[in-house]
């Protein structure tokens, strides 16, 4: 039974020494001197704020993309014992001793280092030679811009790592298709493709471009499978379901999980709460939750409420009134009703409280048992402090003459009767008998007499007589549900005091009642995802912003860091030799492809069919990867920087050895031509290495260069190399 112990257990393994060496060199190039400089470098000032918020479990919204990349950066901080206490307010600020700089920069550096062996393996899986694969890896290794971007607390290197991992995984899966379909390794690489695509999208939405490319490639390959008569219908169905599961269902589930972890970690109220709905804010610990916890859920006749406008733009605000009236005449000569002003006020105030009144009764308290207000009910809204009724009529609003003025009615004994009946319409109701709920219900107030809808007029501020508060109007003939017309109850109590003085005391006291309600994960995810997609900061011109056209010829750079006393500095600059070669390779690939297509159309086949398929497959991955990661930026209305081009240029660099091997194999017919071509390639690669070494002081920030040396590195007039005045 124990006979197997008589012989030694021997394990044999094949080790690709080139791959190991490339990995080690990648790690050395990215990890060397990682803590230098021990100061905030460019966008570390941006991402560092989010890392601190993760450490303190404080909720935030970043409109630049999903949270997975931020969580990876925060993981580095967590592993380094970072407590989140650092003021990220200035590029170049020295890090305090509690900031684990090496740990925070480690994951981006590891991701950047692993891109080197990934490039090698991608060329191998595309069936190119070992030399071509080695050349691709060395070009990535010596690319200054990729080194710079991966050595700091930034996301591009992580994004590129997942993009390349997704491409490699799909190629390995595809190469196993003919001989090992549905094997363990087949499933592993297919599932890893979906996981890597989801991670790429989770880091930055730019990852979606490569994800779409791989989906299109998988769709094309499956289309070819449909024409294979050797595959049965059942087998085709299984292949289709497997791809759908691995490339669509699992990535979607994983993408959701990023938000689930994000929301689970950030459970405390923070500075970004105000852009979220009241329901979302109330689900966070502290902040609004401290006010709304235990409020009554159902709004009843006699309820005392504050009404928050759902739109929240340009800022959150609440329906408000005060004793001041509209001026008899505005600056432009138009007249008003001279009624009590109604505004949308961006701060919490006792004048934000309103009482929901039954038009058929006089009492302003909640009965026992409470009578809930339902969808379609008619109510009057009584201002809590002044006890005047919310009113609108056929008088032009002060700033929006096409809309009706909204006021609190004052009886001047003139022919202007009160028109203070409003129909409650719950927009997000499940049925027509739904009860109006605190925080959860989004409500339209439709004026009974004129059918106008109560609306915040989109950020228009009243003049001095209105204390610069936001205008509220009655919008006529409105059929849609724009968020500026929607309101939700934020603070709520059941009124108990019929006397006005007692009621004023009640309105000034905090709300403490007995029902609370939290949002589900899907509701929070939907709201947060929508905010990320629609919330846009004002794009302003940045000193180092650029256009997409500037990237191809590298007519721009970005100064990341400057030493406070010496000339040491770090710039995002690509390897000029590599970028120029990548452009030439892309142009040559396009010209050769068009030439071959024209010749093939004439039934002239210059290269064998298997070489043609290899040429097209490599172009689809490398050339297609460059196109999908570059061309969309011409359609984007946002501030662009050189680092946005890094995923695209990575694919373009992979195209260089593809073109070089093709030229050597099919255009250099004689041994002499091949030898001359090889010598040119060696000379060219020496040029690439020379440029890498020349610009490495600007890549690593050391050694510090003298002003004359810095001027010598300004190879283009458009580069902004920083030179201190002596």
From TrEMBL:
Transmembrane segments: 12-32, 68-88, 100-120, 126-142, 154-174, 186-203, 208-226, 246-267, 576-598, 610-628, 640-660, 672-692
Membrane topology per record: Multi-pass membrane protein
Keyword Membrane in record: yes
Pathway: Protein modification; protein glycosylation
E.C. number: 2.4.1.109
Catalytic activity: a di-trans,poly-cis-dolichyl beta-D-mannosyl phosphate + L-threonyl-[protein] = 3-O-(alpha-D-mannosyl)-L-threonyl-[protein] + a di-trans,poly-cis-dolichyl phosphate + H(+); a di-trans,poly-cis-dolichyl beta-D-mannosyl phosphate + L-seryl-[protein] = 3-O-(alpha-D-mannosyl)-L-seryl-[protein] + a di-trans,poly-cis-dolichyl phosphate + H(+)
UniProt KW Repeat keyword: yes
Protein name listed in UniProt: Protein O-mannosyl-transferase 1
Organism, as annotated: Setophaga kirtlandii (Kirtland's warbler)
Gene giving rise to this polypeptide: Pomt1
